[in-house]
Amino acid sequence: MASQGLVIILGALLLTRLVAVCYGNVIKFSDLERTLVVSASPRQGQVLEAGVDKITVTYGLNQNTSAGSVDSTYKTIKLKLCYAPISQVDRPWRKTVADNLVKDKTCTQNIVSEPYVASNTTFTWLIARDVPSATYFIRAYAYNYQNNEVAYGQTTDAGKVTNLFEIQGISGRHVSLDIASAVFSAFSVVSLFGFSYLEKRKAKKSTQAM
Amino acid sequence: MDGVITMEGERKFTLPVDSEHKATVLPILSAAKPHMLAFHLSWIQFFSCFVSSFAAPPLLPVIRDNLNLTATDIGNAGIASVSGAVFARVAMGTACDLFGPRLASATITLLTAPAVYCSAITDSAVSFLLVRFFTGFSLATFVSTQFWMSSMFSPPVVGRANGIAAGWGNLGGGATQLIMPLVYDLIVRIGATSFTAWRIAFFIPAFFQTMAAFAVMVFGQDMPDGNFQRLEKSGDKPRDNFLKVIYHGIRNYRGWITALCYGYSFGVELTIDNIIAQYFYDRFDLKLHTAGIIAASFGLANIFSRPSGGVLSDILGKRFGIRGRLWGWWVFQTTGGVLCIALGVVGSLGASVAVMIVFSVFVQASCGLTFGIVPFVSHRSLGVISGMSGAGGNVGAVLTQVIFFNGSRYSTELGITYMGIMIIACTLPICLIYFPQWGGMFCGPQPNYTEDDYYLSEWSEEEQRKGLHEASMKFAGNSKRGGTRKVDSATSPAAAPTPV
């Protein structure tokens, strides 16, 4: 009993330590400057298929800012697929947490991660097969050498209203699965009747033998 | 007499049995026919049903993306998963009384297996809710487990038999939180995409459930002397009247109290199974994987905590009789309520995990203590009482989830605290349970009222003339022997001659 209690206490302490380690500086979305320009091939309202269609993204530093001034700290650019507000409704696991980018769940689908160059770059992405059905926009984050976000750009406006597109996810179903389900289900039910019939016969036989 | 191998005709039992041929000991590691074989078949089948019923929660992060579910859809499916069994448990109780636990349990297990197979082909929130609803019906096998154990094991050990069988079955709710993610990972590694992998994963619990039902059908036996159908046809066991069985069950107020109280031990356990992973994930920012392990540990405590409740009930019964069993039950369940309040109040991760583990022990032990009382409430309608109590557990789960964990009226921690208060309030009715032959929490037994009088009251004069009450009289005799009367040096069962 005592050793069980000790294990519980040690386990709890370890968990608390791990949680403490994870918390560093808190970065807010409002801390970031929108210095990147991102545009993507899908038009407003277009519906794309996961696993089939491709998205071409062009991104780079905003031409109106001079290279070498704001982007001296940029080390990597990460492109992400982000949920539009309509796909976040009643889904707390996709919540936008503007006060803390570590907890923010708006952009959970990674497209690509590239080293930063000031000039425009184009990337073509085949939509992954585990992308869920939802309405999206694309955002690019610029990271510094400490791997913290310092700037961003996105295909939509600040209110996340314009330029949204839809992706239709795969169903994951296959004909073979459908058939297997049907066969096994039928097997279960039929075997039940089989057993009951055998039971009745056994009972009748034993009373006849008496 | 206890402790002696009884022979009747050509039947001989490996384990020591009483006059009803129920075993008086419970050697866990044995598979002796028919008693221990029934024990193992019973808990394994129930375990498989629990694994299936709670197979979805650990895979929800993938399923919710595939089926485009909202939080409301998930909540409704969770409520549906436990509400199907409310009616199914009552029906199962009656089915056990009429057809025997072997046929009744294997039937429902085989009839719900299609729902688990079809989980692999759902494609919408509605179909997801429906498969969880129908899969949940399989939790009715709890009732058949308790009925079967009460038919195979004698009063001195019935508490622990019920407690261990049910506890190890409930283990499925914890084990599935570990099994399903592992199976899913394996399938993804083999090369399936995530939205297909979870579907394939569901075939594992479905197949396990089918095989468990087969084993019960082929190897199981309803009663120590044989199966219902054979015994009925040979005249050894008279077939009872359906309506009378139900009538005697529902008019016994004690059954309603055990149903209510079970709603606030087992019902709370089911609620926690559904919400605790998300609670730890959200409140303490854990990874889903870590939150899942904590959630699993709540359910896994069942391996010893619920059986301990059953064993404790038997120990208290031996020393203090039924009154001891009632007091133990009330103390443990009320303590569980206090710990539940504490769980909602503590603010740090370490304290929460510690409180949750202690809370799980008390809540699950209370479940075991409940079914140390249920076998004695009625003999004629044992199945109906077991079914009502079991169903009450699920009603409690539905109620607590609807009142405290639906929408955003209360934060989860406030909901947990209020649930604790409700546990304490709804456990008070245990004080009202009174057996005229044994007493209640605050009152002693009536002087000239015996066990025979109590169990005989379920049979009319005409039925007694036909001799239909004989099985109940055997049970009455055995119930005097252990676990219901206070032990006195002058009247210890071993010293006194067997009354005829």
UniProtKB/TrEMBL annotation, chain A:
<protein>
    <recommendedName>
        <fullName>High-affinity nitrate transporter</fullName>
    </recommendedName>
</protein>
<keyword id="KW-1003">Cell membrane</keyword>
<dbReference type="Pfam" id="PF16974">
    <property type="entry name" value="NAR2"/>
</dbReference>
<keyword id="KW-0732">Signal</keyword>
<comment type="similarity">
    <text>Belongs to the NAR2 family.</text>
</comment>
<keyword id="KW-0812">Transmembrane</keyword>
<comment type="function">
    <text>Involved in nitrate transport.</text>
</comment>
<feature type="transmembrane region" description="Helical">
    <location>
        <begin position="179"/>
        <end position="198"/>
    </location>
</feature>
<dbReference type="GO" id="GO:0005886">
    <property type="term" value="C:plasma membrane"/>
</dbReference>
<dbReference type="GO" id="GO:0015112">
    <property type="term" value="F:nitrate transmembrane transporter activity"/>
</dbReference>
<feature type="signal peptide">
    <location>
        <begin position="1"/>
        <end position="24"/>
    </location>
</feature>
<keyword id="KW-0472">Membrane</keyword>
<dbReference type="GO" id="GO:0010167">
    <property type="term" value="P:response to nitrate"/>
</dbReference>
<dbReference type="GO" id="GO:0042128">
    <property type="term" value="P:nitrate assimilation"/>
</dbReference>
<dbReference type="InterPro" id="IPR016605">
    <property type="entry name" value="Transptr_NO3_Nar2"/>
</dbReference>
<keyword id="KW-1133">Transmembrane helix</keyword>
<keyword id="KW-0534">Nitrate assimilation</keyword>
From TrEMBL, chain B:
<dbReference type="GO" id="GO:0016020">
    <property type="term" value="C:membrane"/>
</dbReference>
<feature type="transmembrane region" description="Helical">
    <location>
        <begin position="326"/>
        <end position="347"/>
    </location>
</feature>
<protein>
    <recommendedName>
        <fullName>Major facilitator superfamily (MFS) profile domain-containing protein</fullName>
    </recommendedName>
</protein>
<comment type="similarity">
    <text>Belongs to the major facilitator superfamily. Nitrate/nitrite porter (TC 2.A.1.8) family.</text>
</comment>
<feature type="compositionally biased region" description="Low complexity">
    <location>
        <begin position="489"/>
        <end position="500"/>
    </location>
</feature>
<keyword id="KW-0812">Transmembrane</keyword>
<dbReference type="GO" id="GO:0042128">
    <property type="term" value="P:nitrate assimilation"/>
</dbReference>
<feature type="transmembrane region" description="Helical">
    <location>
        <begin position="288"/>
        <end position="305"/>
    </location>
</feature>
<dbReference type="GO" id="GO:0012505">
    <property type="term" value="C:endomembrane system"/>
</dbReference>
<keyword id="KW-1133">Transmembrane helix</keyword>
<dbReference type="InterPro" id="IPR044772">
    <property type="entry name" value="NO3_transporter"/>
</dbReference>
<feature type="transmembrane region" description="Helical">
    <location>
        <begin position="200"/>
        <end position="220"/>
    </location>
</feature>
<feature type="transmembrane region" description="Helical">
    <location>
        <begin position="43"/>
        <end position="62"/>
    </location>
</feature>
<feature type="transmembrane region" description="Helical">
    <location>
        <begin position="384"/>
        <end position="404"/>
    </location>
</feature>
<dbReference type="InterPro" id="IPR020846">
    <property type="entry name" value="MFS_dom"/>
</dbReference>
<feature type="transmembrane region" description="Helical">
    <location>
        <begin position="353"/>
        <end position="377"/>
    </location>
</feature>
<feature type="transmembrane region" description="Helical">
    <location>
        <begin position="98"/>
        <end position="117"/>
    </location>
</feature>
<dbReference type="GO" id="GO:0015112">
    <property type="term" value="F:nitrate transmembrane transporter activity"/>
</dbReference>
<feature type="transmembrane region" description="Helical">
    <location>
        <begin position="416"/>
        <end position="435"/>
    </location>
</feature>
<feature type="transmembrane region" description="Helical">
    <location>
        <begin position="129"/>
        <end position="148"/>
    </location>
</feature>
<feature type="transmembrane region" description="Helical">
    <location>
        <begin position="168"/>
        <end position="188"/>
    </location>
</feature>
<dbReference type="InterPro" id="IPR036259">
    <property type="entry name" value="MFS_trans_sf"/>
</dbReference>
